[in-house]
Amino acid sequence: MSAGGAVAGGTGLVLVPVLLVVVLGGGSQTCGPTGPLAVAGGPGMVATAEATAEATAEATAEASAEASAEASAEVSAEVSADASAVAVPVGPVAGYSGVQLTNAAHIMAAAEQLGLPLQAQVIGVMTAMGESGLRVLDRGDAVGPDSRGLFQQRDNGAWGSLADRMDPTTSSLNYFRALTAVPGWASLEPTLAAHRTQRNDDPFHYVRWYEPARQVVAALAGVDLPPGATTTGGASACPAAAAPAGGVVTAGYGEPGPWGGHSNGRIPASALSPVPWGSGHALRSDATLALTALDNAYRAQFGRHLALTSTYRDYARQVSLKAQKGSYAATPGTSNHGWGLAVDLGGGVNSYTSAQYAWMRANAPAYGWVNPTWAHRGGSGPDEPWHWEFYGVPDATV
Length: 398
Hints:
Blueprint: E1 12-17, E2 20-24, E3 27-31, E4 36-41, H1 49-84, H2 99-113, H3 118-132, H4 162-166, H5 168-179, H6 190-198, H7 210-221, E5 272-274, E6 282-284, H8 285-302, E7 308-310, H9 315-325, E8 342-345, H10 355-363, E9 369-370, E10 387-390
Antiparallel strand pairs: 1-4, 2-3, 5-6, 7-8, 8-10, 9-10
Helix pairs in contact: 1-2, 2-3, 2-5, 3-6, 3-7
């Protein structure tokens, strides 16, 4: 059978359209038909459309596959060359050395080859640290016995062949393609971006490796990369809140009120704990611990912290707000903010119709935080979706 799909065997001519496949830098473009091709034919021997289509499809698929393979090989070769060109430090960086730093260079080169910024390089190195310690592992674990390579990629068809997963360059390229498919990846905290790429159980698994990854990328790239400079989403998850000051507060459930012998709005700073992600914000220690746990769950869902607008208010602040807002503010000395047991939130929580408010209504009570019934739409008080109070939980342990 001829290349055009006609069967040779006679003296006639059959005109068959031919598709021309042109390879253009890593992809294939089909151009045609470009014109008829004269092919020998004879009585009763005609080229069928089916045969033509089949042959054309085979030729196109073969050419496309060859082009894709050539393009992938070309990209991988370029990445490997870029990685080889990186000067790996003689001494350890953040506890990593030798082949570990070489593997980090492969990861960085893959991100650069795909046109991704330093932010992505740090996320990639961080992920590999958390998965394999920057080593190409030929083994998995109890959760993923088929996991392999730098990123412990599973044998599920999403990460290529075993050879792909065991190759630092190819596995890195596949990782970054998956990362950039995550909606809003660049605005997420690095650990959340990595989690949504790897789909592991713990959204904050990679937190501990962010800082070492930042140091390694800075050293290999030869740039000054201050903490948090690579992302708008924040460098890491919040640290645990401070232990309760002045002893453990008895757990229980109930409306906020006096505690510790303090007066409303006159609680000393030593009796409060700062909210880890909110500069200048503080609450009673058990409320801070509970809010931090709630924030971890909220961030896993929405990719950002709870937006704090108000927490503890001292008496002077209550007087000032009353003067500004009149009947919309509590009488000084009576606000639950003055007990360090109330917060006001923005970022979507401040709207009854938002996904954030709906999520909080469904989940916050498990952490001891409620939007009191008076603040519900149509409640007995002013509509305040942003106002949340710490009631605690009956079986809480602080």
